[in-house]
Amino acid sequence: MADTYLSISYLQLAFSVLLILINVVLSLRLRLGLEKSLIIASLRMIVQLLLIGYVLEWLFTLSNPWSVMAIALIMAGIAGISAVNRTSRRFSGIYWRSLLSVLVAAFLITNLSVAGIIQVKPWYNPQYLIPMLGMILGNTLTGISLGLDRFMEGLVTNRNAIETLLTLGANRWEASHREIKNAVATGMIPIINSMMVMGLVSLPGMMTGQILAGANPLDAVRYQIIITFAIASGSALGTLGVVLLAWLALFSSNHQLRCDRLFLAK
């Protein structure tokens, strides 16, 4: 395999804007009203990716674990906040519960993958740690937001049935077990669906990027399998963690459902 790759110039990058214009034109012609969102999302993506590119270029030159961990914590913090911002309902303390779930799930799975499976030395090598953490965080964020939203909506929708079970003597776990199960399953669905067609319908971004950069396809595939299993584990742990923490907040120790603690997001 070649050891080189085709470098993309800023002029070529500018030409790629023509691709997103297809979406803008379709939105205008069909009156979808999405053109403003498309333009804002595109600009944000460009600025954010270019900034992180410069940050990573600087970070890769460092051998300081504290700098690497500081960047990792910032990424996790943003993921925890973003997960809650996607939900339609909130309750007091939801942000720290989301952040804690993201931190525990993403950092545990990332370290197991980087230090235990790939055996990177040193374990904080940013070339491996930061990209893998980013992929795990992105998918864990999605799982947490979907699971949280499903759990809270389930409690509101099935409030009468849950309170009836509590009145008949069921404890809070027995009365809410179905909602917990459905919420965790909902959070895991995106990665399961992705795994079902991976390699047949879609070529994952990490694998494609490595191949474009000149890596051996089989090496790229092995990395992709590891990161996919890591993403699945992170999503499952993060979703389960945040749903259980939400369960503790929305059911009292006296086995009462506290839907009064829920409020609609502004």
Mean pLDDT across every amino acid position: 89
- Output the helix-strand order: HHHHEHHHHHHE
Helix content: over 70%
Q: Tell me the quaternary state.
A: single chain
User: Using only CA atoms, what is the Rg?
Assistant: 21 Å
- The low-confidence runs, each spanning 5 or more residues with pLDDT under 50, are none
Structure description:
This protein has ten helices and two strands; from the N terminus they run H-H-H-H-E-H-H-H-H-H-H-E. The chain has 266 residues and is mainly α. It folds into two domains: 7-59, no CATH class; 64-264, no CATH class. The protein has a two-stranded antiparallel sheet with strand order 1-2. Helix 4 (65-85) runs parallel beside helix 6 (126-157). It starts with 9 loop residues before the first helix and ends with a strand. The relative contact order is 0.13.
Which features characterize this protein?
266 residues, 2 domains, two-stranded antiparallel ribbon, 2 strands, globular, 2% strand, mainly alpha, 10 helices
Layout: helices, strands, pairs:
Layout: H1 10-15, H2 17-30, H3 35-59, H4 65-85, E1 89-90, H5 94-118, H6 126-157, H7 159-167, H8 172-197, H9 205-212, H10 217-250, E2 263-264
Antiparallel strand pairs: 1-2
Helix pairs in contact: 2-3, 4-5, 4-6, 5-6, 5-10, 6-8, 6-10, 7-8, 8-10, 9-10
Brief sketch in words of this structure:
The protein has helices at residues 10-15, 17-30, 35-59, 65-85, 94-118, 126-157, 159-167, 172-197, 205-212, 217-250; strands spanning 89-90, 263-264. The protein is mainly α. It has 2 domains: 7-59, no CATH class; 64-264, no CATH class.
